[in-house]
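[audit] Reproducing an earlier prediction to check determinism. Same input, same settings, fresh worker. If the tokens differ from the archived copy the diff job will pick it up downstream; this log only records the rerun itself.
[audit] input (166 residues):
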Amino acid sequence: MAASLFKWFTVAAISVFGTYWHPLYISVTEINHNPKDKILEISCKIFTNDLETVLEKMTKTRVDLSVPAEKAAADKEIEAYVEKHLLLKVDGKPVVLHFVGSEKENDGTWSYFQVNDVPAVKRIDAVDDLLYESFSQQMNILHVTVGGQRKSTRLDCPEGNASFQF
């Protein structure tokens, strides 16, 4: 669902005004509870050029996420950035995101995380301010699925807090 939503936003994101392009700044984060393995599975998709922009500001070096030889360094930067800008609490307790990996897909970059030892979920609180420091028009979509029940919200910069009750 996130992939098709992201593709739809990609098509809708660019409008032509004369000879100028006007992009839409968006990220999509999926959080799924896997009760069998007792983990939260988290995936974030961000436009690659926007992610490169914020990583360059963070590291003060040029970042090109399409260079295979630089993938290990880029993954460390992505991990540090997302862990700073996507904070979760499960049932009122802060949890630690563990980086699983990333992959570039068309004009977006997926990053994957998991939270271990989560046998059950009644509530998820999220702070999601991905890209807010660089793009005042940024919007972040969150989809959370627990026990087969899916809830979603949209956060527009500067609003970064969301809560999901199950």
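[audit] rerun output stored. Observation attached for the diff report: Residues 24-165 form one domain.
[audit] end
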